[in-house]
Specification:
The protein is an alpha+beta fold. Helix content is 42%, strand content 22%. The protein folds into three domains: 89 residues; 83 residues, Ribosomal Protein S8, Chain: A, domain 1, CATH 3.30.1370; 189 residues, C8orf32 fold (Roll), CATH 3.10.620. A hairpin with a 2-residue loop joins strand 7 and strand 8. The termini are far apart. About 2% of the residues have low confidence.
Length: 370
């Protein structure tokens, strides 16, 4: 026990930051940035542990060690109060959210599957779960193609709680990812090589979008999964199912378009909504062409074909352009578009003149033609 107490005393002394009074501040960053990024959670935990020892085991530590612990505890609490005051004055309104999200973000970046986040504040499980979801959505590619689900469990402190105000010590996250980092790396390498080999500096925005659209449509076959939502061993929601597997669903189409378009220098966003065909959730892309935002739906430009008249030798070449570079108005004929402040308005349609594929019998052979 004595060794543990000495460790707490040493930790308090090490963690205590320098005075935060304005007179001593000289930063390259703004006061707001500093306030938002100050994370007092480690010091909070040590202060809580030291206070618990003094209150619950008063006779365990005595004499000069006890007095030293009291002094350090007082100074640490004063430092915490100074940090809180600084964050209230200069920081964003919800500093708890910033502090928790910073921890979540780093663990997700490392693709941790089981991690604990320090809360040390009054909060509830729904609030922390919302912070987690908001952090996942900061990177839409990650949210739509890599992240699958999470379970959140919280550890509460009954002594610090007060009536309806529940004090949470920490939250544990068990996270499932659709693909591992090795597959992510393979997708990244493929995308970089594809752009290097297919997109040139002389290509216009239109040329780039068309090349990416046609590649994805011709490469993929819509697939709900061979088993357990996997296609050829890859998640049907991840671009890897299109590149290496047997095809994927709209998430795979949209995230692959996003990946290739971004690497090609195009501005691209996601759009989501509800299909009027089957009332199912759907995702597609928006791309900026010559300064105008337009919709691109590679999933619906890759129709599932059933051709019973005979074998088609080049069925993989079948592609249509019904949903390529269209306005929101035109897209609304087929779907309800979700309200999203991050989604730009698509006010423009390009009359591309592109011809949809058809199947014709040429001699004794059925072939895809334009």
């Amino acid at each position: 026990m004595k060794r543990k107490i000495l460790a707490i005393i040493f930790a308090l002394a090490l963690i205590m930051p320098a005075n935060l009074g304005e007179k001593n501040m000289a930063y390259a960053i703004s006061n707001k940035e500093l306030a938002d990024n100050l994370d007092p959670s480690k010091l909070e935990a040590k202060v809580a542990a030291a206070r618990y020892l003094l209150e619950n085991y008063p006779n365990t530590v005595r004499g000069s060690i006890k007095e030293k612990l009291k002094v350090l505890l007082k100074k640490s609490q004063e430092t915490l109060n100074e940090v809180y005051a600084f964050k209230r004055k200069y920081g964003s309104e919800d500093t708890l959210a910033i502090r928790v999200k910073n921890q979540i973000r780093e663990n997700l970046r490392l693709r941790k599957t089981d991690f604990t986040v320090n809360i040390n504040s009054y909060a509830d499980n729904d609030q922390i779960s919302q912070y987690f979801l908001e952090t996942c959505k900061e990177n839409p590619y990650f949210f739509y193609s890599i992240y699958e689900k999470a379970n959140v469990s919280s550890k509460y402190n009954s002594e610090m709680s007060n009536g309806s105000k529940i004090y949470m010590d920490s939250a544990r996250f068990i996270v499932t990812y659709r693909e591992n980092q090795e597959i992510e790396k393979k997708v990244e390498e493929f995308a970089n090589n594809w752009v290097q080999n297919n997109i040139s500096s002389s290509d216009s925005d239109f040329d780039k979008a068309l090349k990416i659209h046609d590649f994805i449509v011709m490469q993929n076959q819509y697939n709900l999964g061979d088993s357990k939502k996997r296609s050829g061993g890859y998640s049907i929601y991840n671009p890897s199912s299109i590149i290496f597997g047997n095809g994927g669903v709209c998430n795979a189409y949209a995230t692959l378009f996003d990946k290739l378009a971004s690497l090609s220098g195009l501005e691209v966003r996601y759009a989501t909504g509800i299909s009027k065909k089957n009332s199912e959730s759907h995702i597609w892309n928006m791309v900026k062409i010559n300064g105008n935002w337009m919709n691109v739906d590679t999933t619906w430009d890759d129709p599932t074909l059933k051709f019973d008249d005979g074998y088609v030798t080049n069925l993989d070449d079948f592609v249509i352009y019904d949903y390529f570079l269209k306005s929101d108005e035109q897209m609304r004929y087929s779907r309800i578009i979700d309200e999203d402040k991050n989604r730009p308005l698509g006010l423009t349609t390009i009359d591309t003149g592109l011809k949809n594929s058809t199947i014709k019998k040429i001699g004794d052979t059925y072939m895809v033609v334009k």
